[in-house]
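Q: What changes when 6-O-phosphono-alpha-D-glucopyranose is included in the input?
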Amino acid sequence: MCGITGYIGFREAYPVIIKGLQRLEYRGYDSAGVMLYDGKNINLAKTKGKVSDLQEKVKQEISNQGQIGLGHTRWATHGIPNDINSHPHVSQSGDLVIVHNGIIENYDSIKQELISRGYSFKSDTDTEVLINLIQEVKEKYQVKLGKAVQLALKQVIGAYAIAVFDKTKPDEIVVGRLGSPIAIGVGEDYKEFFVASDASPFIEYTKDAIYLEDEEMAIIKKGREVKVRKIKDDSEIDPDILELELNLEQIEKGGYEHFMLKEIHEQPRAITDTFRGRLLMDQAIIKMAGVEDNMKKFLNADRIIIVACGTSWHAGLVAEYIFEEFARIPVEVEYASEFRYRNPVITEKDVLIAISQSGETADTLAAIKLAKEKGAFVFGVCNVVGSSIARETHAGAYTHAGPEIGVASTKAFTTQITVLSLMALRLARAKGTMSSSVYRLHLQEMEMIPQKIEKLLAIDEQVKGIAKKYLLSTNCLYLGRGYNFPVALEGALKLKEISYIHAEGYPAAEMKHGPIALIDDRMPVVVIATNKGHYEKVVSNIQEIKSRNGKIIAVVTEGDTTVKDIADHTIEIPETEEAFSPLLTTIPLQLLSYHIAVMRDCNVDQPRNLAKSVTVE
Ligand code: G6P
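A: The predicted holo structure follows.
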């Protein structure tokens, strides 16, 4: 995790770095720091807290002048979040400065070695060890910064995206990558360069970007081209300069109080964008390049294994139901973190689908590498274009949700389900497990989803009223069955991550095997009871909650009367095919957790201890 940024050019670096850090705060926000070089001195400010705290500190403590700078926003791994452990870190000589995203696993042995050579350390971080290792190598072999970084990185085990500055050679920044992302923004005529964990910090300055691959480094010299090299053997690489499609509007709040609310409201548009060029209603077909090109792999697959983490794992669970129902292909859904370490049985006849919003999640990436080694075909469902997972997989389909900045995932989830539903339908047709008339009906239903969500979003005020009643709850239970069991899990995750209320998601029928013991008149129970999803059975579960005085918040299909008579609150969703109902039932649960979190005065977009992009295992 952590966000890094840097600038070298003709502008004042400080505003560029600060704005960049604010955009990267989704990657971690427990401390922040900046280094500015004013032509003579290195000025450094670092603090526990957010980028706004850093701005205060800079105002009080340092000059903010200089056209070269590095910045960092941290999600602590080694060493608690405090001023000293914050980045940037400076080498013992005082000349070299580093910002780092990742973990140096063998930092302790390197540290002991450096201590024996007279180095001492101020912080508890692995990063301070790395910058001193670079210094040691530079002095020992009398080499330039680029070479010293390369030789030092060859000794390192772990993951990193780093940017390093050397006061004795102040016209360059050296960057390197293994396992954590890094993008270089290339200014006009190479007069300026930007470095960042993603392209968002520099999109208003340049649309030209180079994404480093793993085990690559770059020497960025003001006024000259970027030199990209392989860390392993020093061989030069001709880098691809990509044209970015991202625009500023996409990463701003656009009048909403929080990114999360904006992103909830963006779902109709995000799903429509995800359909574009794929759901071709005039021909009544689905076309997905990544699937068409690899149709044989899918059709011959013994099974599909889905790997993911967090919310993406919940989308995978929904997909399990849809793939098995529509395409009759056996599906297993795995937490990437478990899968990668349990010596799973994988064969060449397996297809592995990796789902990831960021495309950078370390465990998912490791699971992909493992499956590839064992010969499986690996398909990625990612949101971030050009991300590590998008590049590591054999083929894939993007979700086109646009940048998701709120840490709690919303539109990424519904667009993941959209892509996976389209895939399942396409495969069902190819396998002949769905008749053409049923297929056509499903396509029509899919196409209607964005407008149904648009209509559904009008429940916002009603949900706010319900939120008011339960904002002081300490526990909450979420129940659903079939396609909506994963939605119950996702609803519970949303509530706990942003409002810090303990919440559990359960298959409704499992309630009687444990959670029912928790129900009393202080326990809100959110139940998804759509009219086609084992409705009668879920109604019986609702009765069981009622008889134990639980407070029932039910998500029902419009026109429902039975549940309305029993539940304390009912929220109606438009009628749809049961398989697509998660795309609708999710919306009120997102809004409920959003409003409860706002009313509890929680930081909705940046909940404590979390980060959006989890690049550590
Ligand atoms: C973090 C985020 C979640 C996300 C999960 C997986 O925990 O806070 O919102 O679902 O990582 O991330 P990915 O980018 O792989 O979907």
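Observations recorded in class: Residues 411-431 form the longest helix (21 residues).
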